[in-house]
Write a structure and sequence with these properties.
The protein has about 220 residues and is mainly beta. Helices cover about 15% and strands about 35% of the residues. Strands 1, 2, 3, 4, 5, 6, 7, 8, 9, 10, 11 and 12 form a twelve-stranded antiparallel sheet that branches. About 35% of the residues are buried.
Length: about 220
């Protein structure tokens, strides 16, 4: 009987450790931004969220404008984190520091994009939303610049454009009509205080316990 009691005690101890390790793993998974997540991105220097809408630039490329807004509740500030066109990421996997991603505007399904046009207010590099149904071109790709192994939800990161090497930035210039008060978002060649971003509100996708289908983004 004593042997049976000892076996039961060891079994219960192992079961407790197994459950504890699963909880710890699940808890740590929640700390990261993952492929497929819908997020709002805050510029921490100017306290505005990355935003877009079906309003075209009146100069430069004439593509859909990208701005920064102070209103935290605006639904046009949600963006989906996706993989490269030729290298999709598995839905729910943590985004690695240095990983190349696309950032797609949820409402219009256009990708965060930049190119060799001057921005209308600051004369930096124009940032737009480009493509149709989530598909644009190779200038939709950005790398996540962060310190650790993966992009943590509560850390400040930079987004560096793969094609032109500029950083996604805000320096405070404000538009007039028809988007009065919204801030210009543009690309800058130097890493500085104006290009720090942090994930805020959103839906953070977690990996499935049992994959039901091949699901890549």
């Amino acid at each position: 009987m004593e042997i049976i009691g000892a076996v039961h005690l060891v079994f219960r101890s192992l079961l407790f450790l197994l459950l504890w390790s699963k909880c710890e793993g699940g808890e740590s998974e929640l700390n990261y931004v993952t492929c497929g997540s819908l997020v709002k991105l805050l510029n921490t220097r100017h306290n505005v969220r990355l935003h877009s809408h079906d309003v075209k630039y009146g100069s430069g490329s004439g593509q859909q404008s990208v701005t920064g807004v102070e209103n935290a509740d605006d639904a046009n500030s949600y963006w989906q984190i996706r993989g490269k066109p030729n290298r999709p990421c598995q839905r729910g996997t943590s985004i690695r520091c240095g990983q190349a991603i696309r950032i797609m505007h949820m409402k219009t399904s256009r990708n965060l994009h930049t190119h060799r046009f001057s921005s209308p207010l600051s004369n930096n590099q124009e940032v737009s939303a480009f493509g149709e149904n989530g598909e644009g071109d190779d200038l939709d790709t950005w790398t996540v610049q962060c310190d650790g192994d993966h992009w943590e939800r509560d850390e400040d990161v930079r987004f560096k454009h793969v094609g032109t090497n500029v950083f996604l930035s805000v320096t405070g210039e404000q538009y007039g009509h028809p988007i009065r008060g919204q801030r210009e978002v543009h690309g800058m060649s130097a890493a500085n205080q104006h290009n720090w971003w942090r994930s805020m509100e959103g839906v953070f996708i977690q990996p499935s316990q049992v994959p039901l289908r091949h699901d890549e983004l």
